[in-house]
Amino acid sequence: MTSLLSPLDTWYKAWTAQVLAASYFTEGLQSYGDEFVRPLIAASQLFAQVEAERLLWRTPQETCDSYLKLLNLNLDLMTRYTQGTLATLDQFNRQKLDDFFAACLAPLFDPGSEKLEHFLTEHKELLKRVVEQYPKSIKAIEPEYGFHFERQPDSLIAETDRFILRKVHPTDDKVKTDEGMKPVLIVPPFVLGANILSFLPGEKKSYAHAFANRSIPTYIRIMKDIQETPAVQTMSLEEDARDTKHFCKILNDRHQKPVTINGYCQGGLSAVCNILSGALDGLVDALITCVAPMDGTRSEGLGKFLNDLPHDFNDLAYGTKTLNNGNRVADGQLMGWIYKLKSIENSGPMIAFFRDIMMLSGKGDKPVTINKTVAAINYWLQNERSDLPMAVTKMSFASYSTPVTKDGTLPIEMFGKPLNFKGIAEKNITWLLCYGERDDLVEKEVALAPLDYIDVEVTPFPKGHVAIATSWSHPESDCALDTVFGENYRGPVRFHLDLDGSVQK
C-alpha cells in the first residue's frame, strides 16, 4: 500500500510546492510592480496639475503635436521595456528550462522519483527568498550602513540654517586624527544622500573613512532635512556657497592649512561652482571630484532621454511639488524614477524581479546567501532619495540642457556673474577628477568635459557610478583610494596625502 501511495504523495507535495511558488511569484510581481508604479502615479498627478494650467494658453494644434510626440516617446519606452523583459526571460529560461523538463519527465520513467518534488520545492524556496528574506535582509542592514552620527555626538563641528558640518572619526581604534594635517571637506550628492559615502564602514567599505583611517582630518557637509527645514527648501546657490565658505573658514582656522574640497556626483558640480564663484578664495587650494556631471549634454543616457522629451514637457515644473508651507521643491522620488525610466530596458519591474531571482538562485543545492554589499546597495536605493531645493535642481537641469560654451563657460551663474572652468587654473586650484569607466549615469564624456578647457589630473576607476564609494574604498581592493594603481593613477586619498608635505608616505 505504501508503495502504491508513494507516487501520489510525491505528486501532492509537488503540487503543494507549485501552489506556494505561484503565490510567492504573484506577490513578487505585485511588489516590484508597485515600486515602479507609485512614482508613476505621482508623476501623472503632477503632470495633470501642470497641464490643467498650460492647456489654457496652448493652441489646440500645439497641444496635439506635443501629445503625439509624447505618445511616440511612451511607445519607444514600452518597446524597450518589452525587449528587455523578453531578453531577461530568455536568460532565465536558459538557466532553468532544461532542469524543469527533466524534473517533469522523471515521474513518467521512474514513478518513485522525487525529482519533480525537489525541483518545485527548490523553486518555491527561491521565490520565498526573493519575496520575503531578501527585503528582510535589506531592512536589517540599516544599523551597519551609513554614518550614524547620532552615535557620535562629538562629531558635530558647526552648522548653518541649511547644513551641518560633521567630523568623520576613524573606524580603526589604532588610528588617531592628526590635527596638523591638511583637512578634507566632502560634499556628498544631494539627491542620493550622504550615507552612500559611508557605505559599510564595519566592512572597510567607506569612502569617507578611507580618508579618516589615514589620520586625515575628514569632514562632511550634511544637508538638513528638507521636509523640516524651510531654509533648505528655499536655498539659493549663493547660500550654498556662503555656508561652504563658513565651514572652510572654520577648518582653515582649526588646522592652519587650506582645505581640499571633495565633491561626489552633484556635490562635485556644486564644489566646482562654489570655487568658480570666488566664495572659497584663500580657503581652498585643492579639488577632488568623483563621477560629477560637468556637461550633461554629452550624456548618451540621461542627457539623451531629457533631450528626447517633447520641448513642452522638458520642464522642471513636471517634477516640482508644493509643500504644505507653500514652498516648492523638486520631488526626489520622481527624480530617482526618471533615472530608472531612461534605462527601462535594464531596470523595469519585471526585469528587476527576474534579475533578483537569478541572482539568488545559487548553484546546485547551495543557494546564494544575501551578502551585506547587495543588501546595503538596495537599502540605499530604497531609502536615500531626498527632495531637492529648486536652485540645486535648476543647476543640474541646466547642466543637462545647455552645453558648456566653446570658451569653457558653464550654463550657471552665481553672484550675478558667469562661471568658467578656466577659473580653476587661474585660482591655482589643483584638481583630481575621478570617473567610472562603466558609469551609465554620469558617463566618461560628461565627467571629463573640463579637459577641453584646462589641464586636470584624471583617475579612471573600473565599474560604475558608486563603485568608488563601495568597491574601491576597501583598503585591500585593486584600486584602493590611498594607493597608486593602473597606469600611475592616484586615488583621491593618495592625491590628498601627496598634497600635504608633512605626511610620511
Question: What labels describe this entry?
Answer:
about 500 residues, alpha/beta, Rossmann fold, 2 domains, eight-stranded mixed beta sheet, 17 helices, 15 strands, about 50% helix, globular
CA-to-CA gap between the ends? 80 Å
Strand order of the largest sheet: 1-2-4-3-5-6-12-13
How many domains, as an integer? 2
Which CATH architecture of the largest domain is right? Answer: 3-Layer(aba) Sandwich
- Give the name of the CATH superfamily of the largest domain: Alpha/Beta hydrolase fold, catalytic domain
**Percentage of residues in strands:** 5-15%
Radius of gyration: 26 Å
**CATH fold-level label of the largest domain:** Rossmann fold
Broad shape = globular
Secondary-structure content class: alpha/beta
Oligomerization = single chain
Which spans have pLDDT < 50 for at least 5 consecutive residues?
A: 1-5
| SS element count, helices | 17
* Name of the CATH first level of the largest domain: Alpha Beta
